[in-house]
Design goal:
The structure is a homodimer of 667-residue chains.
Chain A (H helix, E strand, L loop, with lengths): L10 H20 L5 H17 L14 E4 L5 H11 L6 H5 L29 H20 L11 E5 L1 H5 L1 H12 L5 E7 L2 E2 L2 E2 L8 H8 L2 E5 L6 H13 L5 E6 L22 H10 L11 H31 L1 H11 L21 H15 L3 E5 L3 H4 L18 E3 L4 H14 L3 E7 L3 H13 L5 E5 L17 H6 L5 E3 L4 H13 L5 E5 L12 H4 L4 E4 L6 E5 L3 H14 L4 E5 L3 H5 L3 H7 L7 E4 L8 H4 L4 E3 L10 H7 L4 H12 L1
Helix pairs in contact in A: 1-2, 1-3, 1-11, 2-3, 2-9, 5-7, 5-15, 7-15, 11-12, 13-18, 15-16, 20-25
Chain lengths: 667, 667
């Protein structure tokens, strides 16, 4: 048991306990949630929000605000309490009473798309660290791009509170290693080191020296021995962290989870469950808290609400500074406003059209698209997880994004796929950037946790996924995607696009860039493809469209990507035999599903029941389009190591097989 | 350029160059592969295989062999060269000439299921580190379980060669942190630190102090300054690593990638592409290599082939020791032989039957299965990624697996899902254990890279995935699986099983344990379920079966897991209206797909075209079973935070909706 505080209740203590009891009471009312972290981390969060964090509660989207990430998202009542107490309109006391209820702005984990003031969606552990690295990268990049001597219009910090769970996750390791490499001096993380995770003491599984590990990554590490009581030490550590400008900082804050609860403090019992009525009462007594549930003492509220004036003043000052910038640099200011508003420049999509004339692999067509977009979309930037020259993502003529050249737009993510995804999410949610990240399609598996969050958090990131079938060849089944395309199609609010040729690759980029509220997963070939007569940019943007047709078709062959060529050739052979065959290219099932019923009937008429699908991947999901009387050509086993064309043929991706299967379906 | 070696060619150098040139020549012939690592890491690999590694080339499966893992799997020619040179039958010189060709035993990355002598399947970076931690865990566990005073029958090391790429991956961080925590003294990793990854210098993205990071994890770290030439230093480092018994060891070996190539050594150009004819010739000249492609000097071969006698002798000695053990401890010896042969004890599945009488959530039924299996399958062991008391995976009465209690069977993986998966893969491939690992279903996304390898590498690991739908409730969409089940069904050579009640949970475990060559992904509810009248263990093992029937059914409702209860109730209502309705439970599409056509026709007759599927998840993939005239009930959006029953109802998982949809389908 933690003894009741012996010292007098200061205003600061009152404020901190206000956070604690809003959290306790909300979890208690919901009978669900995680009170332990808010109780233990309230002091560090209070010091941060009270003395350091630059924000305007009445304008949560002010572009030069500091970004705050609660990577330990299960402790979201900490954040909701602070948003409410400091005066955000997005979290009223009624919202707090509706914690974890249907339709409330206070869901079980922080969701940027639900609650103003929440920067990123966390809960899946470690993601917030990656997001924060991305936020800090975006700040550094925009500062390098837009600031001018005497005009610091981009100048804010990224603060994080993370816990033991985040520090156990590999994604956080990846992001922290890259953050150290990039010397992101304005990234400051407070590690709520309470030695408890859900299963109990961290002694069970996590006994490493975390501070030393971050030092190895190149971080500045500060320690706060007593994060429960020593507010001065917390403030001093934050000030020290800010003073180190060429390294990100980790502040290791030793705390007690569930601080104040006589029976449960310092135990896993307070991690993820309501305290229970008796223990809530005991905690009230222990901390000398005399207020009713959800009551906030007026003194505390008034102290917190100083944030409103302070924030308004800070933003007003910034507005003045921005006005001066605008006067001195009108073009830059206009550009800055455009990208921070997430608006695309007029006619950007036309830059892609010349790419439609090229003929090569779709990964090289993708490279041509990146190069074409680069001058017209300066906010478009990214790179690869150490496969730049396989993914073809390096844009010539642009600098690398590195310490000393933060204006660079070619990113070197290292072999850190999961970190890359989370970093992209942070970059995009910062505003002012449209990020892309690349790896082999099969390694989408490594970053799926982040891809899902791109979709859930409504982030228009581009995932460039090359080597999209067994045609990659010799690297073998560990590197050959089979089920990957299908596995991505199932993610809600996302687009999976697998173009067949140059027209369709252009369409893929036009769609991906235009979709600012959902991620695009772009699958490109390693091998060369031919441009096909019937394809079109406009058709491909509908997700599925007719490429070859015949009057009153008796058979429809549906294909994607490199297999469209097989379908077209098979149709020629069948047509020569007098069969009426239609070929439908379906680069994106999702886009197709969104078309009108009339359009869909025009492409896949209900009356034409003889259908064949061809895709060099899992057949899973294709029965929706071929129906009960159709056939699916694909592979539901793993691939094999051999030259691509050999593997392709061995697994049945041949014109002959498409013809033979079609004949069988025709009966 | 690296200067030609000035010192005389020793036999050791001849051996090392034999590895290098077999690798160079094989990659050159295939015009595909990664020569850089074999050329740089040949010295350390030679010292390891020559002086330290305990193995018998003529019996690659000898149970007490040391395990060798090439985590940097792209450098597989290093391993194939060693397997050939030391006399394994699995890799002949012809096989090396067939590197990366269809049907060869020398695929583009090491595959345990293709090539004897390859312990685990690597290539996807970082996995090998997790596998190695698993191999070392299995050794430690079996040693603790079986060794007796004077009888060390389990006593071998796990050696790893890994590269920069592995060390950038989060999965390796997770596994290394746990390996340090567990003080796995018999795990020794050699880090081929060549400062080059595919995109170029590690200065681009990876400038951390790796040795210091491993020290932070609790590892013993040794450095070898000149890994190109200083064989003594390598041997000394290995000896030192072996002498430290309470910590795993990392030997940081500084090398030159592509050592010996005048133009390409030390560059990314030699990482993943053939040297090219001119550079091969220049490398031959530079290293004084006078032999034709694929020729191995007789002196070198004879030195390598000493491994055959040495291995035979080592195994013979062990056989003697085992015979003595068998005499002293016949029961233990028989048990050891059984589990190392991967045989299940007679009648083990009967232990599960009493669980069929219980009625609760399927996660608690899963717990009952774990407890029931625990005494009859002593090789069955595992744990959770810090969610033991949510996943219900802690088996009472068993000790924790920790340093000092390696005989324990309750594992504490920490919040390290991806590491957990890779560790399970290593444990299983070691032999003697059947591992399980648990987390929330939605976090399968975090470990999908390892799950795919379980499937590809034919590993019968059990993934226990609880909280299997939006019914998990308040935690919200970050924690609610929607698309996860579908995303797992697409993985080849795996089983996804979502049982509806006690009978089906028993069936799920019977199937999962019996399937020793493919992983099972078991999805369990958080909430209570009712046992349903029509379910059966035998039926569920067929993947899909009739639970409610009517003569000449006009409608079939297909459901899985918790939604089977909705289907059964809907059928009752429809039957009361005079409709002939069949209900099919389909806990596993994969198992159902494997049934005979006759059986499938008996369950889902082609003639009954009116069908409805119900599953609280993505509808993706269900059209295969409901056909063109059917309807799918599911959800293709993310969930929301609220109490489970509220979310469930809001998304349409109600008897009313099933009835209404059925009526619509019936027309």
């Amino acid at each position: 048991m933690v003894a009741a505080p012996s010292k007098p209740q200061t205003l600061e203590t009152l404020c901190i306990n206000s956070i604690r009891f809003l959290s306790i009471d909300a979890v208690e009312k919901a009978k669900s949630g995680h009170p332990g972290l808010p109780m233990g981390a309230a002091p560090m969060a209070f010091v941060l929000f009270d003395q350091f964090l630059k924000f305007n509660p009445k304008n949560p989207k002010w572009v030069d605000r500091d970004r705050f990430v609660l990577s330990a998202g299960h402790g979201c009542m900490l954040q909701y309490s602070l948003l409410h107490l400091t005066g955000y309109d997005s979290v009223t006391i009624e919202d707090i009473k509706q914690f974890r209820q249907w339709g409330s702005s206070t869901p079980g984990h922080p969701e940027n798309f639900e609650t103003d003031g929440v920067e990123v969606t966390t809960g899946p552990l470690g993601q917030g660290v990656g997001n924060a690295v991305g936020l800090a990268i975006a700040e550094a990049h925009l500062a390098a791009r837009f600031n001018k001597p005497g005009h610091n219009i981009v100048d804010h910090y990224t603060y994080v509170i993370l816990g033991d769970g985040c520090n156990m996750e590999g994604i956080a390791s990846e992001a922290a290693s890259l953050g150290g490499h990039l010397k992101l001096g304005k990234l400051i993380m407070m590690y709520d080191s309470n030695s408890i995770s859900i299963d109990g003491s961290t002694d069970l599984a996590f006994t490493e020296d975390v501070g030393k590990r971050y030092e190895a990554y190149g971080w500045h590490v500060v320690k706060v021995a007593d994060g429960n009581e020593d507010l001065d030490a917390i403030a001093k550590a934050l000030a020290e962290a800010k003073s180190v400008t060429d390294k990100p900082s980790l502040i290791v804050v030793t705390t007690t989870i569930g601080y104040g609860s006589p029976k449960k403090a310092g135990t896993a019992g307070v991690h993820g469950a309501a305290l229970g009525g008796d223990e809530v009462a005991a905690t009230r007594a222990n901390l000398g808290w005399e207020y009713e549930p959800f009551d906030v003492p007026a003194d505390a509220l008034s102290r917190f609400r100083q944030a409103i004036d302070k924030g308004a003043k800070a933003e007003a000052e910034w507005n003045e500074r921005f006005a001066a910038y605008e006067k001195a640099y009108p073009a830059e200011a206009a550009e800055f406003k455009r990208i921070m508003a997430g608006e695309l420049p007029e006619g950007w999509e036309k830059a892609l059209e010349p790419v439609a004339q090229k003929e090569t692999s779709t990964r090289l067509l993708s490279e041509a698209c990146l190069n074409a977009l680069s001058p017209v979309l300066p906010e478009f930037l990214g790179g690869s997880a150490d496969l730049a020259h396989s993914n073809m993502t390096y844009v010539k003529g642009l600098a690398d994004f590195q310490y000393g050249s933060y204006e660079g737009r070619n990113f070197r993510f290292g072999v850190r796929e999961h970190g890359m995804g989370a970093i992209m999410n942070g970059m995009a949610l910062h505003g002012g950037t449209i990020p892309y990240g690349a790896t082999f399609l099969v390694f989408a598996d490594y970053m799926r946790g982040a891809m899902r969050l791109s979709a859930l958090a409504e982030i228009g990131a581009l995932y460039i996924l090359t080597h999209d079938s067994v045609m990659l060849g010799e690297d073998g089944p560990t590197h050959q995607p089979v089920e990957t395309i299908a596995s991505l199609r199932v993610i809600p609010n996302s687009l999976t696009i697998r173009p067949a040729d140059a027209n369709e690759t252009v369409a893929a980029y036009q769609v991906a860039i235009a979709n600012r509220k959902r991620p695009s997963f772009l699958a490109f070939t390693r091998q060369n493809v031919k441009n096909l007569a019937g394809t079109s940019i406009e058709g491909a943007k509908k997700g599925g469209y007719i490429v070859v047709d015949a009057p009153n078709p008796e058979l429809i062959i549906i294909a994607t990507g490199s297999e469209l060529a097989l379908a077209v050739k098979a149709a020629e052979i069948l047509a020569a035999e007098g069969k009426a065959v239609r070929v439908v290219s379906m680069p994106s099932q999702e886009l197709y599903n969104e078309q009108s019923d009339e359009y869909k009937e025009s492409v896949l008429p209900v009356s034409v029941k003889k259908r064949v699908s061809v895709e060099a991947g899992s057949t899973f999901g294709w029965h929706k389009y071929v129906g009960s009387e159709g056939a699916v050509i694909g592979m539901d086993t793993f691939g094999a190591s051999a030259p691509g064309p050999v593997v392709y043929e061995k697994f049945g991706f041949t014109v002959d097989n498409v013809v033979a299967t079609s004949r069988k379906v025709l009966g």
